[in-house]
Amino acid sequence: MSKALYLLIVVIAFLTVACVVWLFAQALAVNPENPWEAFPISAFFLGARDYMLVIGGIIWIAGTIIFVLELLGYTITTSGLKKTKFGIANWSVVDIALIALSAAVYGGLLFATAPIVLVPGFTWLRPANSLAPLFGMFFGIPGCLGVAFGNLIADILGGFFGVGSFGGFIGNFLIAYLPYKFVRDHTFTTTRSIGEFYLWGVLAQAIVSAVYICWWLDIMQAAVGLPIFVIWGIIAPIIFSNNVVVTALLSPILGRALFPLIKARGLYWKMRVPSE
Question: What is the pTM of this model?
Answer without folding.
Answer: 0.93
